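Hi, can you check this record?
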Amino acid sequence: MAAMWKWCEAGSSFLSKLASNGEKYQSSVHMRNLIAVYDDVLVAWSQKEQRLLAVNIKNSPKVDRDDCQVLLLTNPPLFEVDNVLVNKSHHLLLSGPRGVTVVALPTTPAAFIKEKASCRLYSVTEPQAPQFILPVGASHGASSTISSSLGDVAVGFDFGHATAGKSPARQVFVLMGSGDVYLTHVSPRDDNSTVHLRKVLGPLTMQPQSDDNYGVDGYSLVCLQAAVPILAIATTFGTLYHCLALDEPRNETFSQSLELDQKEVSLYVFEKVKLELSLSPAGAEDDSYSCPIRLFKDPTTPLRYICSHGSGIHAVALPFIDHLQEFAEDEESRQLPSHLHADPCIVENLVCTRALPSSSPATPVGVAVVPWYPGPILVVLTNAWKLLTISLVQGYQSYLPQLLSGNPLGPRQSQRVRGQEGPPGLDHHVRQLLGGRPVPQLAQAACDCSPQQCLELLFAATQKFREEWLQRLEACQLLIGRRIKSAQEQKELQLDKLRNKLQEVACLEDRYEALRRKYEAVDVTQQKIVKRVENVLHQLHRQVPVLSAAEQSMQTELKGIQEQLRDMSPSLEQAQLKLRYQEQSSAGQDDDTAGRTAVSRSPSLSNTQVEHIRDALTQDHM
């Protein structure tokens, strides 16, 4: 593949300065990664000159420039660097078997690069004061050769999920040289000490049980972020294990319930992958060939990671992560879909540095993924100080369509499908299958090969391509078969729905007919009631009297008299009150007069007495 940038071409100042390190890495099988990418800059470590080399990857491939900047450290590390790692805050980590150094990268070309003697961890809420300070630098202690030979030293680690609780922390999975995996937790709130005080769980059990105990060695480990932490473990014999880190159910006691952050975790191995370490036919590879594999995460997609080893570069993608995420988001599904087990990982052989089993290993010394359009680009630095650029697949899709009877789409998945422009059709998947994946670049393979070995290599490559093409055809056949089965199931479901709809239509027609009869009866009854109401209103209207002009004038006069009565009623009430008052006053006066008359009245004679007096007087005169 032609170089995309000027500094990737042979003879550029960037590669010339790196080539000054000589051939010290060509005979070494130790894994190294001396390049890294941050923002739009690719940096490489030069061990001989003890400095960093930086190039701008944002320049267009058409620009005829070879800009290479040399970054000097104020205090270079005293140990040999075999790993370069950069974070988002422009800090570079230089690590080796004898120490660790943190370097602050410049944000402008004129800035200085300073080496920090300590690694500080800050909180977002309090960015001024560090919460954790870890001294770093060259280690002068005695090396644990015996422990290393027995596999009792850690060879790799990676961070997992953040745990919730009173003391939030983040999981740390640690891989030992013996292949055992341990789990611990770290938090910014921990004490500022170089001694780890949290509990270490492990070695974690691996399920299901295997006869080979999943190997007796381990070399590298990465934790892929998903709904459940997925660990990829690499051994020294070209084998990869994909595991799910699941919490183990247990009956918690009162004391155990207080330790919410330290649950029992087990590793469930759901896939084992054996990498092809040469282009030789299957079975020709020596099983005793030791090939340490170093794993790198792909920053452009969470589904993929890169494998670097003595035989070249592989890329491994896990579509299982997307399906697992959909399963976790679907709250209604309670059973793991069966199609997840039939969706293996996708392994791409990108670079081959060891074509034949008899060839000596050529371990790449640098691997970096550069975000680019239309897809990411893998930059590989070989031990012969050559740069290879390889275009990576931008996205992965499952080639096996999901059956409708297995796990129908949930509400969230249906919303997600409706939000997209539309799922790719069958022809797109077939083209993607038949188009294949990039052919591995053969680098540093023909230097020590005889003509007979080259012929064998040609036959092996032809046979390999033939097998891959047959596998693609079989995959297309399987894809078409599953699509046909899916279409048949969809047809059956649609026919069932159609029959149900026809039954519902017939039922609705019957209900419509019954409602129509009821409506007609109600309409007839309503018409009768309306006629009766009209007759009643007509009779009432006829009974209403019609007034003549005299009656109307009399009615007007009566209204006027009523108004006058209303006006005179207050005066009448006042007159009545005065009359009652006068009557009460006159009655009092009569009582007083009668009393006085009774007192002054003299005694009077009765009629009998008057007759007696008359008789007496008459007799006297006689």
